[in-house]
Amino acid sequence: MTIDIEKIAELSHLEFNDEELLLIRKDMEDIASMVKELPSVCTEYYDDSVAEMELRSDNVSEQMIERDEILANAPVVYNNAVAVPKAVKK
After folding, report:
1. Distance between terminal CA atoms of the chain?
2. Which of 2, 37, 68, 76 could form a disulfide with 83 if both were Cys (CB 3.0 to 4.6 A apart)?
């Protein structure tokens, strides 16, 4: 499995030299191969009944929150909307 470490570093705003990139790439590929092998791990002691999850029910409310109330709690408001910092440059 090939992992684009340079792209991950760019998105994470991290900088690595060539030697570090090689080490990180090898570590990530080792991790990915271990994760790929997980389904084949012995499941002898696995109890299916424990794995069942009870999902919560979604309760839709007709109660509307007023825009002014939302904006009053926002740290920054711009053009009558909640302003958030840019997360991705590209």
Report:
1. 25
2. 76
**pTM of the entire predicted model:** 0.44
For position 89, what pLDDT does the model report? 76
Please name which of 44, 43, 22 lies closest in space to residue 6, comparing C-alpha atoms. Answer: 22
| Bridge partners, 77 (sequence order) | 82
- Name the average pLDDT for the chain: 84
Helices in 14-66 by DSSP H: which ranges?
18-37, 48-51
| Residue 2: strand pairing partners | none
- What gap in Å lies between CA 86 and CA 73, rounded to an integer? 20
Give the integer Cα–Cα distance in Å for 22 and 17. 9
The CA-based angle 72-81-67, given to 5 degrees, is 50
Task: Give the integer Cα–Cα distance in Å for 3 and 20.
Answer: 14
What integer pLDDT is reported at residue 34 of this predicted model?
86
